[in-house]
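Annotated sample (chain length 334).
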Amino acid sequence: MIELVAKRAGMAAITLFGVAVVVFVLLRVAPGDPIAMMIGPGATAEDIVRLRASYGLDQSLFNQFWIWLGSLVQGDFGTSISRRVGVGQLLLERLPATIELAIMALLVAIVLGGFIAIIGTLWRRHWSVGAVDGVNGLLLAIPEFVWALALVLVLGVALPVLPLSGRINPSLPTDFKTGFYLLEALLTLRFDLALDLARHMAMPVLALALPLAGIIARVLREALGEAMMQDYVTLARVKGMSELRLILSEAMRNAVGPTLALTGVQFTFLIGGTVIVEKIFSYPGLGNMAIDAVINRDFPLIQGLVLMFGVIFILINLIVDFAVVAFNPRLRHG
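Output written by the structure step:
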């Protein structure tokens, strides 16, 4: 296990360095000047030169990269060009909102996908399995942003039962000690705030969860179908065990492993999907800020955001690797 951790940590460091190099080079070769987004119409040439020097943009690309990398090692992500605030501070302010949104979407996807997979396995020899296949196909075919727009039209405009934007009602107190508003509201028994936060999260969570639920349902259903044909399941069926109990207590144990591995990979795509979904719902997370940073050509903020997403993806993959090993005795003792 120690060897596995050391190997994964080394690969993570190499991956992050590669991400840093790629994002730095791509931003510099892309057309556009971030200083042009900052200066007013009356700015002089001296003002432009001074601004470029203050952000280090007058240095060579090689020097800019090593200055930035050296600052990263010291925990300094630089200063946002468009917001004039430290990038590290901005990331820490927005990260909890995105984490809460992604985890809630993952939980909803697991519950919904698991339910569809179990129903499909129970009805596998019944004509009504076609309805399950249709629902699953619909979930797989429609991407997150289309679900988001559909939910806005239905639940936000036609049937205005949920708020269209934001994270919490501005009229409610927001004296939270951490950025994890929903978790803190539940732990402190402030259920009025928790309910309002849940209502604001409902549509973006559904938009992110529905496509992932379709993937989980498909993979889990296939794994359950294979497990239901094994001899130990047949023996349990002969002993009089019901189909539902067979699925939950016998087949599910062997079906969790492959489903868990794919769910972890797909969860990284869900994190990426927060970029567009957060923008549609004006949700104050990393994704919303990422689009603003790209529009404003905010080099330091974009670099910090890409590295933050890279760290999140690597951590998710590490957790999934260890979870798969924990659920598979052959890997654990191999």
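Annotation: The chain is about 75% helix and 0% strand.
Annotation: The radius of gyration is 24 Å.
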